[in-house]
Amino acid sequence: MRNKVFKALRIIAILICIGVIAYEGYKIYDDQKEYAVADNEYEAIESSAITWPSQEESSVVEYPLIRVDFDKLEEINPDVVAWLYFPSLDISYPVVKENEVDQYLHLTFDGQVNKAGCLFEDVLSDPEFRGMHDIIFGHNMRNGSMFGSLKKLYANGNEDLLEKNPYVYIYTKDYIFQYRVFGYYITRVGSDAYKVVETTESYNELLDFIQYSSAYPRPADADFSQYPSLLTLSTCSGQSGSGKRFVVHTYKTGAWEW
């Protein structure tokens, strides 16, 4: 009798394991389908709204001369405020300004419900990227899309990524802004990495927190004496629901008018 019970329990355990594996496999398949839909959407947006510079054009300016058709972008989504380009990590996406917290967490640029979401600027940040501390959020996608490639910055063997090109570019309707990475680290939701900065005192407090927390040495020639605008890129880190975040801090080093 005892052997029959053990045998039945073993069969039940095996069936449960098979069910879990089947469910996880389905979830992965379903996620990949959503990722593919989002990837196709953003590829189509980039091909219709972005013109990449020729080699000759690139050699005569100090920044990547990307031409952004904001009229086309606004036709798709009037909340668009910028195009973000991070050459070292091949990140190139439109950025929207959320009107309420987490509005674009699971909405793509054209308003479709999708886990990939959209790159979005924090509701308290300046839509013209002139705030003392502006923040852009994006998902840490498994396939490396959105902000999924930010984790490459702390992966073994990638230490020289920022040595080659430490800059992030924000293209708005009127300006191109250049930002230089000066810190990154894993933190938690609600930490001082997300500090609202409106005074020089709170600006310096944020710099101190970044200096203490950063896994990346601050560039020796970084100059904050004139309080240049800070831009933080934020994504999830670790398991979903863990509350961990990976942030990349940058400061404005250049501005050019269209």
Per CATH, the superfamily is: Sortase
Q: What is the terminal-to-terminal distance?
A: 83 Å
The CATH class assignment is: Mainly Beta
Count every helix, treating DSSP H or I runs of 4 or more residues as helices: 5
Shape: globular
Number of domains: 1
The structure class reads alpha+beta
| Spatial sequence of strands, sheet with the most strands | 3-4-5-6-9-10-8-7
The CATH architecture can be given as Beta Barrel
Percent in strands: 25-35%
- Average pLDDT, all residues: 88
What's the order of the H and E elements?
HEHEHEEEEHEEHEE
Comma- or semicolon-separated keywords:
258 residues, single chain, 30% helix, globular, two-stranded antiparallel sheet, Sortase, Chain: A, 26% strand, eight-stranded mixed β-barrel, alpha+beta, 10 strands, 5 helices
What would you say this structure looks like, in words?
The protein has 258 residues and is of the alpha+beta class. The protein is 30% helix and 26% strand. It contains five helices and ten strands; from the N terminus they run H-E-H-E-H-E-E-E-E-H-E-E-H-E-E. It has an eight-stranded mixed β-barrel. A two-stranded antiparallel ribbon has the order 1-2. The longest helix is centred in the N-terminal third of the chain and has 48 residues. About 4% of the residues have low confidence.
Task: Detail the topology: elements first, then pairings.
Blueprint: H1 2-49, E1 50-51, H2 55-58, E2 67-68, H3 70-76, E3 80-86, E4 91-97, E5 119-121, E6 133-137, H4 161-164, E7 167-171, E8 175-188, H5 200-213, E9 230-236, E10 244-257
Parallel strand pairs: 4-5, 6-9
Antiparallel strand pairs: 1-2, 3-4, 3-7, 5-6, 7-8, 8-10, 9-10
